[in-house]
Structure formats: structure tokens, C-alpha cells
Design goal:
Order of helices and strands: HEEHHEEEHEHEEHH
Strand order of the largest sheet: 1-5-2-6-8-7
Structural class: alpha/beta
Strand content: 5-15%
CATH topology: Uracil-DNA Glycosylase, subunit E
Helix content: 25-40%
Length: about 210
């Protein structure tokens, strides 16, 4: 296995007090859950980096793998498989055998936030882990932001002003050094249940990414 060059937060990270307290609450209630910062998933040399918001409390916070165990993964992983970015069957478990193909997944905030809403200070603090994902080693050729918070943190991590890169579903942005930023509404249950994001809309974004990388 290649040496990891991109830092991941320590399991007992204490940088964000509010998130630490919430992790401890979950630990007390569910001591068999992961209840720690969630590391990135996939090869560091991948051409596509996907950036989500934060671990879901019963998803990645429980299982320890991004987008694993809740509805968002039920849409994301089959879509990745359809477009050749994943292999194997997704089964809501980190040991289901699913692997990523030229793709890596991370979150703008690595610890689960209360009500799935990180605050600005937490997003900024966790940017120290997002910046290396975008710039260290074999940097990705494409980055997909799932939602506006991920989009804004990516833009800020690259040293750009947010005013120059407006978030919109299916938008594409050239962000320098050969990197292209793609936007999508987050694949959450809320967005799909309300019709804000359909499977067809989500797949169209991946079709554009696949065409760019092929």
C-alpha cells in the first residue's frame, strides 16, 4: 500500500469543542459506533475527488466510511458504479468489499455535527485536511462538490474568492492548475424526497465528469 501523504485527523481530535462534545454524546449512547473523525476513502492518486458536507450521525459516524450506512450512500455508490468509479456491491457496511476506481471521497468536515449543520469555525478548522486532498501529491483532475458548503470550502481551500465561483447544480468551474470543479446538490434523503435532486440530475453530473476524464 502506498504511503499516505495527506494528513487525516486523529481519532481523538479535539480541535472543535462542539463536535467533540457531540461525538462523546454519541459514544455514550452507541459505544459500538465509529464515533470519531472519518478518514478519506480511496486512492490518493485518484483523478476524481468527491467532497461531501460531513459524516451523517447514523451513516459514516456509525460505520467509519464516508457515505456508508445512510440514504446518501444508497444513491452515491450505485451512481459511482454505473460510471465506472466503483467496483463491487455496496451494502451499507465498510466491509462490503466495495472499492473505488480512480475516485476518492472525503468531507469538508470530518466529524459529525449536531443536526448535520457545522458552523463556520468548524468548516475553517477542518480545511487543514481538505487543502492537502486538493493539492498534495498527485492532485485530482476533477473535484465534485456535493452541496454549497463543500463547494465554498473547496474554493476557499484553493485560495479563491467565493464571489468568483457561484454554486449551482451542474455548474462547472475552472479553478486553476488543470483542476475542474463540478457542483451537485447533495444526495441527501431530503433533497431527493423533495425532488430538488433526482437520480437523472445526479447522473448527469457524473456523465459530464466521466466525459472529461475519458
Amino acid at each position: 500500500m502506498p504511503e499516505m501523504t495527506r494528513p487525516q485527523p486523529a481519532a481523538n481530535c479535539t480541535l472543535c469543542p462542539r463536535l467533540v462534545d457531540y461525538r462523546r454524546e454519541n459514544q455514550a449512547a452507541h459505544d459500538d459506533w465509529h464515533n470519531a473523525p472519518v478518514a478519506s476513502f480511496g486512492d490518493e492518486a485518484a483523478s476524481l475527488l468527491i467532497v461531501g458536507l460531513a459524516p451523517g450521525v447514523t451513516g459514516a459516524n456509525r460505520t467509519g466510511r464516508p457515505f456508508t450506512g445512510d440514504y446518501a450512500g444508497d444513491l452515491l455508490y450505485p451512481t459511482l458504479s454505473k460510471f465506472g468509479f466503483a467496483a463491487g456491491a455496496y451494502d451499507r457496511r465498510p466491509d462490503d468489499g466495495l472499492t473505488l476506481v480512480d475516485c476518492r471521497i472525503t468531507n469538508a468536515v470530518r466529524c459529525v455535527p449536531p443536526q448535520n449543520k457545522p458552523i463556520g469555525a468548524e468548516i475553517r478548522t477542518c480545511r487543514q485536511y481538505l487543502i492537502p486532498e486538493l493539492t498534495t501529491g498527485a492532485a485530482p483532475k476533477a473535484v465534485l462538490a456535493l452541496g454549497k458548503i463543500a463547494h465554498d470550502s473547496i474554493v476557499a481551500s484553493l485560495g479563491h474568492k467565493l464571489s468568483g465561483f457561484k454554486f449551482a447544480h451542474a455548474a462547472q468551474h475552472d479553478v486553476g492548475d488543470g483542476l475542474r470543479l463540478y457542483d451537485s446538490y447533495h444526495c441527501s434523503r431530503y433533497n431527493t424526497n423533495t425532488g430538488r435532486l433526482t437520480t437523472e440530475m445526479f447522473e448527469a453530473v457524473f456523465a459530464a465528469i466521466r466525459a472529461e476524464l475519458d
